[in-house]
Amino acid sequence: MTRPTIFRKSRWPRWARRGLMENIATALIAIGFLMLFQPFALSLYTYSFITMLAGTVMFIIVSKFPE
Questions:
Q1: What is the CB neighbour count within 10 angstroms for residue 62?
Q2: Contact 62, 25 (CB under 8 A)
Q3: Which residues 6+ apart lie within 8 Å of 15 measured at CB?
Q4: Cα 58 to Cα 14: distance, rounded to the nearest angstrom
Q5: How far apart are CA 36 and CA 31, in angstroms?
């Protein structure tokens, strides 16, 4: 007797599953936010938008990954 598809183990590697990658994407967005609001380095302010954009795009892509 086969197990239902709900309990089937994913073939994706553990590091490429949704939970860990969503946490990394969220951390990347948070780092970009902190870079935006720091008053010390103009270069961090300059790259804050790119960092937040990369985290957002990563979050959108990773949300399609299996659990």
A1: 19
A2: yes
A3: 21
A4: 17
A5: 9
| pTM to 2 decimal places | 0.77
The tens digit of pLDDT for each residue in 4-62 reads: 656 667 787 777 778 888 999 999 999 999 999 998 999 889 999 999 999 999 999 99
Place of tokens 């949704």: 18
User: Residue 20 contacts by C-beta under 8 Å, 6 or more apart in sequence?
Assistant: 14
55/23 Cα distance (integer angstroms): 10
Instruction: Write out the two tokens for 19.
Output: 């939970």
Coil vs helix vs strand at 67: coil
Helix, strand, coil share (%) of the chain residues, nearest 5: 70, 0, 30
